Amino acid sequence: MTAKPPNERKTALVTGASAGIGAALARVLAREGFDLVLTGRRAARLAQLAAELERAHGVTARIYAGDLANPATSTAIVTSLERDRLAVDFLANNAGYGIHESFHDTGWDRQKDFLQVMVTAPCELTHRLLPGMVRRGYGRILNVASVAGFMPGVRGNTLYGASKAFLVSFTQALHTEHRGTGVHATALCPGLTYSEFHDVTGSRRSMQRLPKFLWLDAGRVAEAGYRAVMRNQAVCIPSIQYRAIVSVVRALPLGLAHRIAATRYG
Asked: How far apart are CA 106 and CA 86, in angstroms?
């Protein structure tokens, strides 16, 4: 991809941009002057958001509707960017969901699609876009993980915590590998966040029973993630309550932490 003149706006690619943290990140990035490429499965939602951001901030917002569960989608997105001669300066790997059932009760195709969206697609998009960032001496990679990546695994959503733990470790490695290159990498690790996520997984009713202080606002999470990656912070847990929870869990012996988690959530 070609380099941009110094006075030209930078471009951000946001996956899963049609709602929740993804839409909130798009709003933050547009406010900060980034042109946008918005991806997701719901074309109408993406078009509505793109129009909103163009009106409000005078940026250019393109959309690419596609399902990252399809292995061809990541390649198609990058091919489209190359065709339009768009260099991506900020990559927000946000797309994600959960499977609110036990591992053995779900078909492998569902689990395979989940891993494609949650693990393979972020890695592929990063791998394909990272060389251009390094060449230009500027890049921002924000991988939306979760505090679940720091917690013991429990029954249900079996691969969710595992996928988020992978993203945290992957991002930390990127952060270390690219020191001094102008490329920043941050794992954004929120806890429970108000969005459509729990409607998609079918867990809204059970989640509503949890204390309100555990719930975060998607806009504030996005703001925290943006600030963290701009200052090259490897991991961002965007709330004091979840930083405290993660600290306590990590201080416990592994066996005890797992037994407590299994009693509470297993």
From this structure: 39
